[in-house]
Specification:
The protein is an alpha/beta fold and 230 residues long. 50% of the residues lie in helices and 13% in strands. It has 2 domains: 1-30, no CATH class; 32-162 and 188-221, Rossmann fold (3-Layer(aba) Sandwich), CATH 3.40.50. The strands form 2 sheets. It has a 4-stranded parallel beta sheet, sandwiched between helices. Strands 1-2 form a two-stranded parallel ribbon. The longest helix is centred in the middle third of the chain and has 28 residues, at 73-100.
Length: 230
């Protein structure tokens, strides 16, 4: 397994945890998914280190919260570069390696905002939806290469980003973050936030042979939060 992040300390901590819990080999590289040269280096060195590349999981950070009129052209460009272009570039770099071994999997982590736009997240709502369009197109184009493309849409998962978004909302309305956390959890039919492990289980399934006939899908992991039937 190869993993990357911008922060070296957190990256090395995650790599050590994975090694300890799985007993597997982990290649940890400092890389910024907003930089094309970092993506190219990460993909190519990972494939060289392990001798092949079978699965990529695209999981760049999300754009900042805020209302439409506060954002500049630069804000939009940064959001597009981070959340869309990183996915496109990672996939483009990975496909030749996957073709060499007869197939592969691309799993994009997006957000339930692609199913139901979230108030105050206009950048994410717009840009992440473009990832879904790309994935659906590539699922058909790359099917002949046995490269399967799927998306997962986490709902309210207990992560640092979720806490940052809740903190921003609490500050905006002038209320304690604990109240916001409780209200957000109560809106989920299952009555709680999901865990990172619950999201990871779906990712592992999509990367496994048990998902060999699944491509072009967008799967919610949201505890029933999204009301739409599509």
């Amino acid at each position: 397994m190869a993993i990357c992040a911008r922060g070296e300390a957190a990256l090395n901590e995650a790599a050590a945890m994975i090694r300890k819990e799985s007993g597997g080999e982990v290649l940890a590289m400092v890389a910024d998914m907003a930089k094309p040269e970092d993506i190219k280096r990460f993909v190519n060195q990972s494939a060289e280190h392990f001798g092949r590349l079978d699965i990529i999981v695209n999981n760049a950070g999300g754009p900042p919260p805020g209302d439409f009129m506060k954002f500049t052209d630069e804000d939009w460009s940064n959001a597009y570069n981070l959340s869309f272009m990183s996915t496109m570039r990672m996939t483009r770099e990975a496909v030749p390696h996957m073709r060499k071994v007869g197939g592969g999997r691309v799993i994009n982590i997006t957000s339930y905002s692609v199913k139901e736009p979230i108030t105050g997240l206009v950048l994410s709502n717009a840009v992440r939806s473009a990832v879904i369009g790309l994935a659906k197109t590539l699922s058909r184009e790359l099917a002949r290469d046995n490269i399967l493309i799927n998306n997962i849409c986490p709902g309210r998962i207990d992560t640092e980003r979720a806490q940052k978004l809740n903190k921003a909302r609490a500050d905006r309305v002038g209320r304690p973050i604990e109240e916001i956390n409780n209200e957000m959890a109560a809106e989920v039919p299952l009555g709680r936030y999901g865990t990172a492990e619950e999201a990871a289980d779906v990712i592992v399934f999509l990367g496994s042979e048990r998902a060999s006939y699944v491509t072009g899908t967008t799967i919610q992991i949201d505890g029933g939060l999204v009301r739409g039937i599509q």
